[in-house]
């Protein structure tokens, strides 16, 4: 028999968590403040593109195990578990803003049944479990940290087949009850204290961002010494201690997590008395990477961006998502346009943008352009006809910030090709 779970917040984490828990057999009620959003979700209309999510939401609705209501209290009033999946945006000083989390806790404090367990799924600073306990003011309710490690574009499989489930609680029985929700997933289970669980989340994202900034810095060295970063990554990655994962050079990391979580981790350390210089360097390298991509485009069009026409493939922060939040592609295009370049962009998941001219065909955006600029690693870009692209471009230049295209084929077709680190 499944458990009764309330999900507070139907954003990317809340919706995925709720639908997957229903898929695992639990009885799930998802709540949001926005009636329109709840109405559309109840009809199976999702506000986000996430592979596989549409199917399990529809199955959950059809089975009656997944429902949507307006207001946190409505969902939490007869739950056994209340998952807080609200946004924790970056505050002005870089620390996480807990306004929404505290508001959600206050909303459910009055209606939570005795012995319910409140679960922090949102990415929250170390010590937030105590913040939620204080707001709830309920001694018959436990608060547990259960951070998520979902990647956009693979969130459903990341939830159903997690590398690990982390539970942070000072109450062993509450931890055991939360762990039982995941009993149908074959995952390593780590039960620890709340501070450690919250630190695991930030340390994981900080380390992943560090890997990417490291390979982007190595790519810069490769360009300077004439090495090929693809072979360098292959060569170091055979060492099991290093591995090949997450060592793809690119325009820098973006998205709704890494930029926010790296700055929050620096702030958490600083507030606790440690100057996290290493992570500050990771952020600096990432900011510089975007400038390096702009320089590649400037070189491709002959040194002056004013009036240059650029065909951009990709706007999302990475492939297999429709998310534009903190997208390096958007940041790079903004700089190019501010320097006078005329950009026409294509992205399979984006039809319009307030400040960028978005086309509906990857070949059309190449018409009359002085260079093609690949910004997001959509698989479909690999198979487009480079001879057709060359016919449409005004000059046969490619800047490939993802090392996505076949460089040899491009050179054979007469393009000048700039990748990253090669
Ligand atoms: C990340 C973490 O992976 C996930 O565990 C956490 O829960 C949320 O944050 P996400 O932001 O969805 O997930 O995307 P991810 O696949 O990690 O990529 C983050 C950024 O790094 C993207 O801009 C991506 O293009 C970039 N990236 C990733 C690289 O540039 N090179 C790589 O090798 C991998």
TrEMBL record:
Enzyme Commission no: 1.1.1.22
Gene Ontology biological process: polysaccharide biosynthetic process; UDP-glucuronate biosynthetic process
UDP-glucose/GDP-mannose dehydrogenase C-terminal domain: residues covered: 311-407
Pathway: Nucleotide-sugar biosynthesis; UDP-alpha-D-glucuronate biosynthesis; UDP-alpha-D-glucuronate from UDP-alpha-D-glucose: step 1/1
InterPro entries (alphabetical): 6-PGluconate_DH-like_C_sf, NAD(P)-bd_dom_sf, UDP-Glc/GDP-Man, UDP-Glc/GDP-Man_DH_C, UDP-Glc/GDP-Man_DH_C_sf, UDP-Glc/GDP-Man_DH_dimer, UDP-Glc/GDP-Man_DH_N, UDPglc_DH_bac
The entry's keywords: NAD, Oxidoreductase
GO molecular function per UniProt: NAD binding; UDP-glucose 6-dehydrogenase activity
Swiss-Prot/TrEMBL catalytic activity: UDP-alpha-D-glucose + 2 NAD(+) + H2O = UDP-alpha-D-glucuronate + 2 NADH + 3 H(+)
Similarity comment text for this entry: Belongs to the UDP-glucose/GDP-mannose dehydrogenase family.
Name of the protein: UDP-glucose 6-dehydrogenase
Highest classification ranks of the organism: unclassified sequences, metagenomes, ecological metagenomes
């Amino acid at each position: 028999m499944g458990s009764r779970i309330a999900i507070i917040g139907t954003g990317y984490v809340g919706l995925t968590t709720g639908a997957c828990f229903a898929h695992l057999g639990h009885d799930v009620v998802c709540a949001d403040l926005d009636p329109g959003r709840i109405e559309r979700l109840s009809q199976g209309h999702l506000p986000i593109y996430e592979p596989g999510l549409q199917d399990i939401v529809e199955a959950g609705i059809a089975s009656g195990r997944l429902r949507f209501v307006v207001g946190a209290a409505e969902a939490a009033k007869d739950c056994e578990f209340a998952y807080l999946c609200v946004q924790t945006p970056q505050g002005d000083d870089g620390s996480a803003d807990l306004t929404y989390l505290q508001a959600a806790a206050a909303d459910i404090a009055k209606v939570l049944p005795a012995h319910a367990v409140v679960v922090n799924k949102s990415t929250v600073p170390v010590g937030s479990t105590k913040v939620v306990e204080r707001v709830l003011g309920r001694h018959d309710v436990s608060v547990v940290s259960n951070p998520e490690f979902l990647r956009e574009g693979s969130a459903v499989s990341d939830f159903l087949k997690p590398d690990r489930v982390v539970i942070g609680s000072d109450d062993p029985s509450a931890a055991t009850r939360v762990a039982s929700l995941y009993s149908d997933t074959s995952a390593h289970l780590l039960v620890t204290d709340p501070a450690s669980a919250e630190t695991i989340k930030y340390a994981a994202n900080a380390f992943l961002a560090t890997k990417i900034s490291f390979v982007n810095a190595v790519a810069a060295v490769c360009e300077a010494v004439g090495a090929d970063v693809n072979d360098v990554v292959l060569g170091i990655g055979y060492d099991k201690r290093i591995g090949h994962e997450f060592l793809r050079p690119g325009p820098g990391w973006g998205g709704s997590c890494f930029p926010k979580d790296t700055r929050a981790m620096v702030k958490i350390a600083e507030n606790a008395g440690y100057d996290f210089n290493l992570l500050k360097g990771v952020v600096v390298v990432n900011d510089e990477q975007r400038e390096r991509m702009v320089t590649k485009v400037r070189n491709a069009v002959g040194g002056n961006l004013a009036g240059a026409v650029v065909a951009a493939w990709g706007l999302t922060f990475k492939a297999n998502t429709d998310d534009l939040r903190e997208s390096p592609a958007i940041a790079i295009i903004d700089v190019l346009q501010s320097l006078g370049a005329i950009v026409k962009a294509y992205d399979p998941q984006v039809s319009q943008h307030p400040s960028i001219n978005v086309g509906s065909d990857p070949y059309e955006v190449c018409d009359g352009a002085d260079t093609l600029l690949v910004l997001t690693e959509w698989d479909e870009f690999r198979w487009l006809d480079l001879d057709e692209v060359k016919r449409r471009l005004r000059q046969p230049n490619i800047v490939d910030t993802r090392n996505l295209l076949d460089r040899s084929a491009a050179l054979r077709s007469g393009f000048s090709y700039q990748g990253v680190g090669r």
